[in-house]
Specification:
This protein is α/β, with parallel strands linked by helices. Helix content is 37%, strand content 14%.
Length: 387
């Protein structure tokens, strides 16, 4: 188990910092009760961790009001709350072909069952959308633009600041999915002209699975599409309208919040720039080591400027799944294969017929030795197709 070379950090970061495991264990053993439901000391202590984490994340995203930082299960859950709560029948939305199914599927369902119009902006040969393409699609009924900040397939960081400027000028709410970017690069909603940011805790924020959320800028409203317990004002018949209760339902994943708190603190202590610089150094080493191997095809990796540490590739003669199986069984390398829940990316890359690509995802605990081993493994597998 401990000898595994883990290169699937685009799926979830692993391992987590020791501080995360330690804090989660300590919190759950000592304060693992339901916050906000009673006035006894343990309940108050649990609630304080939740509120401290709201403040920590609000500052992390450069927001103003911690009450508008709402927790969810993950970014998919958050994006469903956002998209379903901001679009109605007759509305128009704009997104891109770089998106994850956490955006594509909610939009598809609204398009099919609620009559919402959707336009998709394609990415270019280098993996970037053109901000100038967005205002060309603006309509009177455009109510939402949603863009993946950093691609989980090809690692490109999209020009969201410029897209956001166009949206702000037109008065159209702008949402970003920061699943892959938060914890690697700054996600400053003011600087990026973002109205709502969705995030997950288990990737580069180094928290556990089952926790994520969204931050909603003042002046932007999201309808609640669910209803349930909030622990306060229980006599009110309808779900509460004030934040964070508007978008939170039932008992929070408090141990997940605690783990996320520890993960974000670890990231801040190490520094985003330091983490990103180190991961990109390893990504360049990986890219340079396999780019000239005969029979290997990489996608959108020629220039790693404005990239995160994700590298997709295929080996001629092998479907992605087969390459991944060999890497696992023969080399003890864990990676992700397939369509990566982003089918429109693979449609543009022309990798649908070979069932996607192999994806290496670099994390903060990878080493140069991991990368050298991965390069040698790819080289040896590529040699197999010549025999």
């Amino acid at each position: 188990m401990h000898d595994i070379i883990y290169l699937d950090n685009g799926s979830t970061s692993f391992p987590k910092p020791d501080e995360v495991y330690t804090f989660m264990d300590k919190f759950y053993r000592n304060f693992g009760v339901n916050p906000g439901r009673s006035g006894y000391d343990l309940c108050i202590e649990a609630g304080e961790i939740v509120e401290e984490t709201r403040k920590l994340l609000t500052e992390f995203f450069n927001g103003d009001d911690p009450n508008r930082l709402c927790f969810s299960y993950n970014s998919t859950d958050a994006l469903n709350l956002i998209i379903s709560g901001m679009l109605q029948k007759g509305d128009h939305a704009i997104t891109t072909t770089i998106e994850h199914n956490s955006v594509l599927r909610p939009l598809y369902h609204l398009r099919k069952f609620n009559g919402v119009e959707v336009d998709y902006i394609p990415f270019d040969k280098d993996g970037f959308v053109d901000p100038d393409d967005f205002p060309k699609k603006f309509k009177k009924n455009t109510k939402l633009v949603v863009v993946n900040h950093a691609s989980n397939v090809i690692g490109t960081i999209q020009p969201v600041k410029e897209i956001g400027r166009y949206c702000r000028e037109a008065g159209i709410p702008f949402v970003i999915d920061s699943s892959q970017s938060a914890g690697k690069i700054p996600v400053d909603i003011k600087d990026l002209n973002v109205d709502v940011v969705a995030f997950t805790g288990h990737k580069s924020l180094l928290g556990p699975t089952g926790i994520g959320g969204l931050y909603v800028r003042e002046g932007i409203e999201i309808r609640h599409t669910r209803a349930g317990g909030t622990g306060v004002r229980s006599a009110v018949k309808t779900h509460l309208y004030e934040y964070p209760y508007r978008l939170e339902y039932g008992t929070l994943n408090t141990v997940g919040v605690a783990g996320l708190h520890a993960g974000v603190k670890w990231v801040l202590e190490k520094g985003l720039d330091s983490i990103h610089e180190r991961e990109m150094k390893l990504t360049r080493l990986l890219r340079d080591g396999i780019k000239d191997i005969d029979g290997v095809t990489m996608y959108c990796q020629d220039d790693l400027k404005n990239h995160i540490g994700i590298l997709p590739f295929n080996i001629n003669g092998f479907e992605a799944l087969n390459t991944g199986t060999i890497l696992d069984v023969d080399y003890n390398i864990a990676c992700r294969t397939g369509l990566h829940c982003a089918p429109l990316v693979h449609e543009q890359l022309n990798t649908m017929d070979i069932h996607g690509a192999v994806r290496f995802g670099i994390g903060p605990f990878n080493t140069e030795q991991h990368i050298e081993t991965a390069i040698q493994a790819v080289r040896e597998i590529a040699e197999l197709q010549k025999k």
